[in-house]
Amino acid sequence: MADFYQNGIVTTMHNLRQRDNDDLEAELKSFSKTRPMGLILPSLYSELEGEAFPDIVDHLAEVPYLSQIVIGLDRATEDQYRQALKFFKKLPQDHRVLWNEGPRLQALDAKLQALGVAPKELGKGRNVWYCMGYTLAADKCESVALHDCDIVTYDRDLLARLIYPVANPMLHYEFCKGFYSRVADGKINGRVSRLLVTPLVKALKKTVGHNDYLEFIDSFLYPLAGEFSFRKDVLSDLRIPSDWGLEIGVLSEMHRNYASNRTCQVDISDAYDHKHQDLSLDNVEGGLSKMSVDITKAFIRKLATQGETFSTESIRTLKATYYRIALDYLEMYRGDALMNGLSLDIHNEEKAIEMFAENVMIAGQVFLDKPMDTPFIPSWNRVISAMPDVLEQLKEAVELDHQEFSEKCD
């Protein structure tokens, strides 16, 4: 059973194991009458053929309180888009599939590219951004959740707990971050969060000094969780990274735009497991190696916007400080694993720390070499300013795709 300890400056909502999910869903259904709820699912077509996503869709088909589900579909041909429409047909909720490679959405993307306000990189960030835009365009939801499509331990109560803090009219939260224990198959997972983010934030607090932003990030128990929820008005002014810095970038935007008491985190699962990335020790452009570089760059860029100065020497100091703190944390994880009868490969854990330390230097050097680099996708407010009817065009493209290809599926 979780305790009730409040960590840092962000409210933590624990799972004290006292409430049945049916009761929680019944309350959410009552909220939905005045505060309709939606869900965003960024996915690859390949995930439709995997183990996790079909099970997730089966669970979602039973959820009684959702008004809309928006699915972003990446890497899909025309035939695969048609297959996706059939795949999601079992959902009783109003739902739309954004065919991101389709000619209509590609044409809109080309217009935005010409104006300099389109995502520059393919990937999850771009997918999420277009889904957020469509959610704004459809205007059917007041509270929206987002979660990944590769969760092999999915259950309906994950979604219910995730969206509850922003759906309950008696609560004032604009944003909620999910957290969970990353333990599965007798071992501790979550290497990037455990071995990079936590010790890196501690190292930055030592090298930079007291900083409200670092205090904010340090309050989250699992800052890299891909599950979060928000009020619809959050979407318009959110600038998100298009790379692996998405989760940290979203938290950074919440810190920039809202007081910390408008943000919370919630325990959404006792057992969480999903697709694991390769460590990629010899490839800085792939797997957890690229992820660690992107995340570190996200931290450095954010602190630079607050007036912090970085140099080759300060990056070296940060790397050394991180490395020592990460090894200390590894000892803590080792004790935790032994106490709970879990396996922890100390050799591979140390190899990961060594790689992350090298990547702190790489990320710092990339920042120093390209200080004017702007990896953020523009906010929808800016895009609307550049193209006032963009939401109407986006909605029309999605609806025309749906109408044309749904008929071909029947």
- Helical proportion? 40-55%
Biggest β-sheet strands, sense, barrel = 8 strands, mixed
Supply Rg: 21 Å
Quickly count the helices: 15
Strand order of the largest sheet: 1-11-6-9-5-2-3-4
Please report the total strand number as a whole number: 12
Output the structural class: alpha/beta
Low confidence ranges:
none
H/E element string? EHEHHEHEHHEHEEEHHEEHEHHHEHH
Mean pLDDT, all residues = 92
Termini gap:
49 Å
Report the principal-axis shape.
globular
Strand content: 5-15%
GO molecular function: transferase activity
Protein name: Glycosyl transferase
Keywords: Transferase
Explained architecture:
- With 410 residues, the chain is an alpha/beta fold.
- It contains 15 helices and twelve strands.
- The chain has an eight-stranded mixed β-sheet, with helices on both faces. The protein has a two-stranded antiparallel ribbon with strand order 7-8. Strands 10-12 form a two-stranded antiparallel ribbon.
- Helix 6 (124-138) crosses helix 15 (390-409) and helix 10 runs parallel beside helix 11 (287-305).
- Keywords: Transferase.
- This is Glycosyl transferase.
- GO terms for molecular function: transferase activity.
